[in-house]
Each structure stands twice: as structure tokens, then as C-alpha cells.
Amino acid sequence: MNSPIDFRAVFDRISTPYMLMDQQLVIVEMNQAYIEATGRPREEMQGRYVFDAFPSEGESRRLLEESFERTRDTRATDVIAVLHYAIPRSLEAGGGFEDRYWSCTHTWVPGSNGDGFVLQNTQDITDLRRLKDEAFRPEAPPTTAMLGDSVLRRVETLQSQSVQIRRLFMKAPSFVAVLRGPDHVFDFANESYLRLIGRRDIVGKPLEEALPEIREQGFIQLLDDVRRTGEPFIGRDVPVMLARQPGETLEERFLDFLYQPIIEDDGSISGVFVEGSDMTDRVVANQRQRLLMDELNHRVKNTLATVQAIAQQTLRGAADPDRFAGAFEARLLALSQTHNALTDSRWEGAGLRQILNQELGPYGDERIRMEGPDVHLPARVALSLGMVFHELATNAAKYGALSTAGRLLLSWSVSETGGLDFEWRESGGPPAAPPDRRGFGSRLIERSITGELHGTIAADYGESGLAVRFNVPLDRVFG
């Protein structure tokens, strides 16, 4: 019979550093590799709040604490690619603090009684940081008259290694650049950095000249602070407006990045090492998710108003209770089908006329006239316009033409250069007046047209009713 596995012994023999905390972030256990990496005896760490055992303030602590809490609260693994975090030396090593750089992975470990733990796997990447500094350190090339043969061979070896390291950084998936001097002149930029800025010719140019669009965005001040203080700066999801080519329209990107000072042997700072990742897709997805949650909450409220409007319209036209019940049930079913169809269109796309029919079907075909060709919309565009039409229809049912016996005229056309031109015009209802304040619905319409689809929109409020016109570029509709 096989002997049972001693998992504590296995944990202690893992070669990479691991440390376990409870939900109050009190250190429960660590393996031998963690003890060796931190240079601290077990009794100085075990049973202590993690930030008492490893005190820190400012940005480094904030990033680490937020990562711990995300893992604890969401049960999801969280990663900090680069963390500047000094650790205290033991008394045997002379005390004080030692400057270190770490890469941290935090994982949720469920417990036996419904509780759980945060497991930290940390890698000391301080030597890699120093290697980067060496690879990009400016040095005057020595002459053969100054060096003996053995020293010259050593210099040649180091220069060859430096070239190899630069080549590795050139192909790195994260963007990398080296800025020199008080004007932050580009000494190096890898392929990822060049892709980010549209492959502009920047090497040898000051940052302000190479990327003039960032002049007023605060990044030069950050670089100046790094050079002045000698302290690195870590940014997470930082917005920046960049042009793909000089003179082109600025696009918003979101970056995670590190500004690391390049410190010379004499203590002076010769430049700043820049490393980071483009997080735009993740940030936009999170923003979209938050918008959809807001829209979901808003739609629940609007659905009640829509049901009320349908009930009032049906009651006015019903001769007896039985007819009212039948008509009311049919319109509620149409409303339900509208929501189901819109959910499907988020993934498969939909026709413009189909979206309009889905949103306006519950109000009766006899009151709505549509003029224009059918246009197939990708799911993203169908979702955005579906939100717009839902808001306009709800507003019309609560305050506009659909709240009385009014009518809607919907017309649109597609031009080769201008895109999709659409007009929503109400008539026969109450006079339209500009709202006293912009509610969520108005903000959603504007964000969907101008933000999501990069279009334009205008509204007219008149005695005959509301008129809304918008244009969506063709490349956004069909691209």
C-alpha cells in the first residue's frame, strides 16, 4: 500500500517562493523558497498582518493591497507583472531596507469550512531590472590603446551581450523605450512601442518633438519627477490620446506602464526605462460591461413605463374588458419578443428595419411609417442602435407622439461617403420641449451615437413634436 503524500513537505520543497494568507491578510504559512527570497526567518513573518511583516506606503502598497483584495473578494487569480517593493533586511544582514522588484501572482485557495486563503507566488526580478539598466547604459567605447588584450576581450563580450539583450527587447511583447537626458530623447524603442505610435521616426528626437500630442497630457511631468526623485512610477489603465500618424485624429488608448530611472555608478540618473502594455481592449470591455449593466437597470424601469403606456393606449381603443385583455396580452407578448430578439442581435447582427420593428411593434403598425432600404448591421452596431431606438420609443410613449394618437415617420438613406443618415420625426402628439436636465436616456443616446459609433446627432424640439437626426459613418456600420 502506498504511503500518504505529505503535502506540507511537498509545499516546503517547491523551488519557487510561495506564501499563504488568510482572509484578513495575516500570514499563515510560507515555504522555504519564500524564506530564502525574503531573507527573513519564519517566526518574523508567520501570524503577522502582511503589511506589518513587510511595511510599505504609497503606490507600491496600494497596488499590492488592491491585488490581494481582488483575489480575496472575487476568487479570481490576479497578477502584478512588475512591483517595486523594498523589503526589510534581517538584523544579521545589517537591518534597514533592500530595494527589490517582484512579479506577483495571487490565487484563491478554498478552505474546508467555506472560508479560504490568498496564495502568493512571487518572483524576484531585481536582477532582470539591473540587467535592463546595464543593457541600456550609455558608455563611451574604450580604445585598444587604453586596454590590454584580456580586458578588450571582456569589453567585446559585454558589448555583444548588450546587443543581444537589445534584440530581445526589440521583439518583446510589451512596449519598451529608453529616454535619455532632461529632454527625454529617444535612445531606443522596440517594435511594440513603434506599433503603438504608428511607426513614427522617433529615435534621436526629444519626446515633446517626437510625440507632440502628449505635450499637455502630463507624461513629461511624470518623467521629470522620476528623474528628479529617482523613484519609479507605475501606471495602471492610464488614458492617453495618441495619433497613429502625425496630423491624424487622436485615439484614446489605455496603458499599464512603468517609468524606471536608469541610475549610473556615481548615483546620477541618465535616463528613464519605459515598459508597459496596451490595455485598451480590456478597459473598453469593462466600460462596455458597466454600460450594459446600467442599461439593464434602466431598461427594467423603462419597461414598467412602457407597459403602462401600452395599457393606457389599449384601454382607450377597447370596447369591452375582453377585447382589452386580448389586445393587452398581445402587445405584452410583442414587447417580450422585442427583448428576446435584441438579445440575439448582440451576437448575430440584425437588419435596421428588423430592429425598428422589434422596438416599435408593441405600439401598432398603423401609426408608424418607415422609408428607407434595409441595412444589415453587425452585432455591436445593432446593439447600439437598438439602445437608441428603445430610448426614443420609450420617450415617445411617455411624453411624445405615442402617448396620444400621434404618428412616427422614420426615414433613412445610405450614401457612399456620408454613411447612414437617419431621421426620427414625431407628429400629432404633445409639443416637444428641451428637457430641464439630461437624464440617463439622453446620455445613453449621445454615447451610443458619438462614442460607440463615432457619429453625429442633433435634436429639434417643436410644436409638432420631437425630431432627431443622426449620421453613422459607413466604416463603423459595415467595418
Quick structural gist:
The protein has 479 residues and is α+β, with helices and mostly antiparallel strands. It contains 15 helices and 19 strands. It has helices spanning 7-13, 32-38, 50-53, 59-74, 126-135, 149-170, 191-196, 207-210, 219-229, 280-317, 321-348, 352-360, 379-398, 440-452, 474-478; strands at residues 18-21, 27-30, 78-84, 87-88, 97-98, 101-110, 116-124, 175-180, 185-189, 233-243, 250-263, 269-278, 350-351, 368-371, 376-377, 407-415, 419-427, 456-462, 465-472.
User: If you compute it from the alpha carbons, what radius of gyration comes out, rounded to the nearest whole angstrom?
Assistant: 31 Å
Mean pLDDT: 78
Number of helices: 15
Strand order, largest beta sheet: 2-1-7-6-3
Number of discrete domains: 3
Would you state the CATH class of the largest domain?
Alpha Beta
Q: Which parts are unreliable, with pLDDT below 50 for 5 consecutive residues or more?
A: 140-162
Which geometry do the CA atoms define?
A: elongated
The CATH architecture category of the largest domain equals: 2-Layer Sandwich
Distance between the termini: 65 Å
Name given to the CATH homologous superfamily of the largest domain = Histidine kinase-like ATPase, C-terminal domain
By CATH, the topology of the largest domain is Heat Shock Protein 90
